[in-house]
Specification:
Strand content: over 45%
Number of strands: 8
Helix content: 10-25%
Number of domains: 1
Strand order of the largest sheet: 2-6-3-5-4-7-1-8
Low-confidence stretches: none
Length: 114
């Protein structure tokens, strides 16, 4: 049997941009992606602290060191620039692997830097 567990989390970053006419996704500073262990095109859940919105999308690389968190496409209608969000990825694993699993959690500062 496989279960889903939190793989990684970027806890509380500010949305810096929104691009309605992009195909979709969330653009994340590559430094934050690396620190959290996120891969480009990985599925993530985005939780908006300001309005309670929860949505799923995928990650694309943002400029390294920029602090960029950009909501693209339809997600930009649900999460606004300036909102604080939590980004979570999940992984499927068997029970024994899950018992040993430790997720990666990062806590960027108010400028979305490590």
């Amino acid at each position: 049997m496989q279960i889903e567990l939190m793989k990684s989390k970027i806890h509380r970053v500010k949305v810096t941009e929104a691009n309605l006419h992009y195909m979709g996704s969330i653009t994340i500073d590559e430094d934050l992606m690396d620190a959290a262990g996120l891969l480009e095109h990985e599925k993530v859940q985005v939780l908006d602290i300001e309005n309670g919105e929860r949505l799923e999308t995928y990650v694309i690389k943002g400029t390294r060191g920029s602090g960029m968190i950009c909501m693209n496409g339809p997600a930009s209608r649900k999460v606004s620039v300036g909102d604080t969000v939590i980004v979570i990825s999940y992984a499927s694993m068997d029970i024994e692997e899950a018992k040993k699993h430790e997720p990666t959690v990062i806590f960027p500062n108010e400028n979305n830097k490590l």
